[in-house]
Amino acid sequence: MIEVAVVNKMINDGLVNVIWESQRCSPISNIKSKTISYGSHKYKLCVACGVYRNLNNYTPNAVSQDGKVSICKDCRNQREKGYYQEFIKNTQARWSSLKQETGIETCSLDEFREFCKHEKCKITNRTIEQDIENQSINNGLRLWISRKIPVSLGGSSHVDNLEVLPRFISHGVSGLSPAEYSEIKELYLSKMFIN
Predict the structure, then answer these.
(1) Measuring CA to CA, which residue among 92, 184, 103, 167 is closest to residue 131?
(2) Strand partners of residue 120
(3) Contact of 167 with 140, CB cutoff 8 Å
């Protein structure tokens, strides 16, 4: 691990060779990723923590010119831990609102979390878990959990009656009968995926 100021001085003194430098700044930290060689070792600047680390501390990436991602393994692990904690908190809140909303039979929190991890939206092909991880998604395309049969028509909050839909569809179909709901959903799907 080498600090940026030290590397910059070494570059100016000609002790370090710059192998590759990104053309644009990272949206995470406004830093340009850079790979250098110092002696027989290669180092890369992590755009998350702003420190040069040995290339062994980066995950491979076939698309990158230097063959490595721009965030070190420590920073990636920290971010993934944060996403997992956000997922736990978010699913707890969604499950609680399902329970309070109706007072009818509800699935367990564990069943609900499994549903959020594995059930994909038929339109966006993403799970709730992926939706929580990717905060940059357009608000109308954020995923929402909807009931196939509404509570007003005897539907439950059990996972068998839940499905994942984009927010713009979910809010447009609340209170419809199952036949109307299915017709509207199919109309959305056919309009979005015209061959």
Answers:
(1) 167
(2) 127
(3) yes
| Number of C-beta neighbours around residue 77 at 10 A | 11
Beta carbons within 8 Å of 112's beta carbon, 6+ residues apart: 91, 94, 95, 98, 159
Task: For residue 176, count other CB atoms closer than 10 A to its CB.
Answer: 17
Phi and psi torsions of 56, nearest 5°: -65, -20
Structure tokens of 163?
Answer: 């499905």
Q: How far apart are CA 143 and CA 37, in angstroms?
A: 45
Cβ contact 7:21 at 8 Å: no
Q: SS3 for 147?
A: strand
Q: Is the pLDDT of residue 171 over 70?
A: no
Alpha-carbon gap, residue 10 to 4, rounded angstroms = 10
CA distance 100 to 140: 25
3 state DSSP class of 104: coil
Per the document, the length of the chain is 195
- Rounded to 10 deg, the angle between the 109-118 and 73-102 helix axes is 120
> pLDDT for 86-130, tens place per residue?
888 888 888 887 777 666 667 888 898 899 889 998 878 888 888
Q: Which helix (H) or strand (E) element contains residue 119?
A: none
pLDDT tens column, 151-165: 777 778 888 888 888
